């Protein structure tokens, strides 16, 4: 079955969010390996699992709209992970550098979700999933900010 024109924009939005979650999951897994603090490692692992769950939810929504989901993250996400490698290697405090990057990444995710949420208001099931994921990302942002404050 072909995707209808009415659903095309929604599918594109969901594809973008899906890629962002693939990128976030890969990023969390990568920096988890570099983290020194066990509490931080566990938090990063939990966030990687959460982003995998988000990706699965988005994948399902895309399939329900009769489209084929993207399979992996973006080129920009790969470049950002390479930058994180360099930054954490050069940093004297790896955990602090990790927390700074997490804050930056979570802020970008919140902004992306807020921007995309406005565009999917016509589809209640899509809107609900995107909204709930956005709330979870905002909670993660607040948590990582507290973790950064504690680590200083």
From TrEMBL:
InterPro entries: CHP02284, DUF2383, Ferritin-like, Ferritin-like_SF, UCP029477. It comes from the Bacteria. Residues 10-119 form the DUF2383 domain. SUPFAM superfamilies: Ferritin-like (SSF47240). This is PA2169 family four-helix-bundle protein. It comes from Mariniflexile gromovii.
